[in-house]
Design a protein that fits this description.
The protein is built from 14 helices and 23 strands. By secondary structure, it is an alpha/beta fold. Strands 1, 2, 3, 8, 9, 11 and 12 form a 7-stranded antiparallel beta sheet that branches. A 5-stranded mixed beta sheet has the order 5-4-6-7-10. Helix 8 packs across helix 10 and helix 11 runs antiparallel to helix 12. The chain starts with 5 loop residues before the first strand and ends in an 11-residue tail after the last helix.
Length: about 450
């Protein structure tokens, strides 16, 4: 029984998600005919109210058995019950369920039914999901999917290049879920020292290793009842992956150096800039852990593939930057500066855009202004194309060194003159004085490169 989520796009329609489901139909006892759908990762069965499936029968133990969702299927495990757990008439400690099997808990029989829940997800009519914004079809398709799945406990795996907003989407998922009133704990698996990552995740007891001067809760304990965001999960050391897999499957763990079993109720969201399927093929990431995390896989598109969203993103980011200094006038951006931003390929994606706008906002306010112009945009980042574009233009094996140098200098001249004039509101005299350049020479360069002042030439 495969538990892989199927996510595809049908021609002319939105995304289609097929979620594997398991249901238990009660065949005997006072609750005969009732059906319980196992939608989470763990389903505990017993006669007390703290179980997921409560069967009120004297032959059923308080905590009788549990069903765990694993990569290979659903695993039934007896929890030391008094009257035992049977699968198709045979008593078991643990075994994988199969469709149509009869599970006997005490003297109550349950039939195993499996099916795929097919969800067609149309692009959202909204242009944002939490703090993630976009009007492009790829983003609205993602928003439509998250609107359906965020309220559930489904594990989500976010992929995509660095800076595409995976952390923003993870927080939005938490805020759109019933767990929003509980903690969201973030662990950056790539930023924690390898020999401390186990303690970071599971905590440790006092004296369990050198430097452990006191007991410490780990991320799993701190996130109990809420959401655990495992960022850059692809950086997790291979030897620790089986331990993480066990905890994700059983929702229980022991602290480093401890013997007590801690149970937690959490939702897991993971993210990685790596292609984890490729890492599985290379033997760098466990296949069973990948399928355990990729219940709902979502790939975040790079900014260069959704430049239609750039104006909206800029407005959204500038609103946030304006909020950092509420006493200052709200920030806006000139059309020419926005066009310059659109000409960049954005290898750092939305994170790079925010950094560029933050620097531009600082320069704008330092000049006592509130509108970001071309002169406020860092030259090395975007004006007239990115650095990679300039290098690609400058270096050509068909050209001599002298020709290459001339082309490079010409590109520099045009960008520099545009920046300088914009910084001085088109005043050639002021611009020339500021950089100790002859006014007539600057005017000549502006005319040569078609860079026309946006204001008069009066001092």
């Amino acid at each position: 029984m495969s538990l892989s989520t199927v996510l595809r796009t049908e021609h002319g329609r939105g995304a289609v998600v097929e979620l594997p489901r398991l249901a238990l139909v009660i065949l005997s006892g006072d609750q005969k005919g009732q059906e319980h759908v196992v939608s989470g990762d763990v389903c505990r069965i017993g006669k007390t109210d703290d179980n997921d499936l409560v069967i009120r029968d004297q032959t059923v133990s308080r905590a009788h058995c549990e069903i765990l969702r694993e990569a290979r299927g659903y695993l039934i495990r007896d929890l030391g019950s008094t009257n035992g757990t049977l699968l198709d008439g045979a008593e078991i400690r643990e075994a994988f369920l199969r469709p149509g099997a009869i599970l006997t808990v005490g003297k109550i029989e349950l039939k195993v039914r499996t099916y795929a829940e097919r969800i067609e997800v149309l692009p959202s009519e909204q242009q944002r999901f939490g703090e993630a914004v976009g009007k492009s079809l790829p983003m609205r398709t993602i928003f439509g999917l998250l609107e359906r799945l965020a309220p559930s406990d489904a594990t989500v795996l976010l992929g995509g290049e660095t800076g595409t907003g995976k952390d923003v989407v993870a927080r939005a998922i938490h805020e759109a879920s019933p767990r929003r009133g509980r903690p969201m704990v973030v662990v950056d698996c790539g930023a924690v020292v390898a020999n401390l990552i186990e303690s970071e995740l599971f905590g440790h007891e006092k004296g369990s290793f050198t430097g452990a001067t006191a007991s410490r809760q780990g991320a799993f304990e701190l996130a109990d009842g809420g959401t655990l965001f495992l960022d850059e999960i692809g950086e997790l050391p291979l030897d620790l992956q089986p331990k993480l897999l066990r905890v994700l499957e059983q929702r229980s763990f022991r602290r480093v150096g401890g013997n007590k079993e801690h149970r937690v109720d959490i939702r897991v969201v993971a993210a990685s800039k790596r292609n984890l399927l490729a890492e599985v093929e290379r033997g760098k990431f466990r296949e069973d852990l990948y399928f355990r995390l990729a219940v709902v896989p979502i790939e975040m598109p790079p900014l260069r593939e959704r430049l239609d969203d750039l104006p909206m993103l800029v407005e959204h980011l500038l609103t946030g930057l304006s909020g950092e200094e509420p006493s200052a006038p709200p920030l806006s951006i000139a059309r020419a500066a926005l066009e310059a931003l659109a000409s960049h390929d954005w290898p750092g994606n939305v994170r790079e855009l925010r950094n560029v706008l933050a620097r531009a906002a600082y320069m704008t306010r330092a000049a006592g202004e509130s509108e970001i112009r071309i002169g406020h945009v860092p030259v090395g980042s975007v004006l007239g194309g990115g650095t990679s574009d300039l290098v690609a233009t400058a270096f050509d094996l068909a050209l001599s060194y002298r020709e290459t140098k001339a082309r490079f200098e010409e590109a520099f001249e045009k960008r520099y003159v545009a920046w300088l004039l914009e910084h001085h509101q088109g005043n050639i005299s002021a611009a020339a004085r500021s950089v100790e350049m002859d006014r007539k020479y600057l005017h000549k360069l502006a005319k040569k490169h078609g860079v026309h002042p946006s204001a008069s030439d009066d001092d």
